[in-house]
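Researcher: Next entry in the queue.
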Amino acid sequence: MFVVTIGREYGSGGRFIARKLAETLNVPFYDNELLAKASQESGISPTVFQNYDEKKEGFFSGIIPNGLGFDLSLGQRVFLAQFETIRKLAQSQSCVIVGRCADYVLREYPNAVHIFITASQEDCITRAIKYYDIPASKAKDVVIKMNKNRASYYNFYSDKKWGRADSYDLCINSSVGIDESVEIIKQYVEKKLQLKL
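Model: Structure for this entry, 197 residues:
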């Protein structure tokens, strides 16, 4: 079994690449599906997972004294539920997982490959307009804000830095093309894990 985790800049096409990679490798794909699974296993509402999805919460935000210590905030409980779901998935099946600090969660898992997808700002803006219906006048600001949010979330919940090459096995610029990126990642996974996929 193996797991490929995909971190990605907003508008880089990382989600498209991850889905296509999963199809190419014939393994399950988890993005929003991960939220649904974590919700089901934890008993926390799916709406709560959506509200806290890849968003940083201050460490003491919402922590409630319980007489013996402190209860975790809702955001922290959501993160830990996702954490546990990612670990269970890695122990039960091969798959591709997008975001949610999955590379950090599986940092000691021997059969995991951690990828980060970037792209030129121009390509990210173009994709944000085309696929996410962001108005052209706001697209650059949205791309910058989303990347700040993702970096803040990742840096808060892990001891690594979002987007830095030394946090991943492979960083790739998707401006080479979606299909080309999928093929490069597939070849890398085969080489690193010594598999023929």
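Model: The first helix runs from residue 14 to 25.
Researcher: Noted, moving on.
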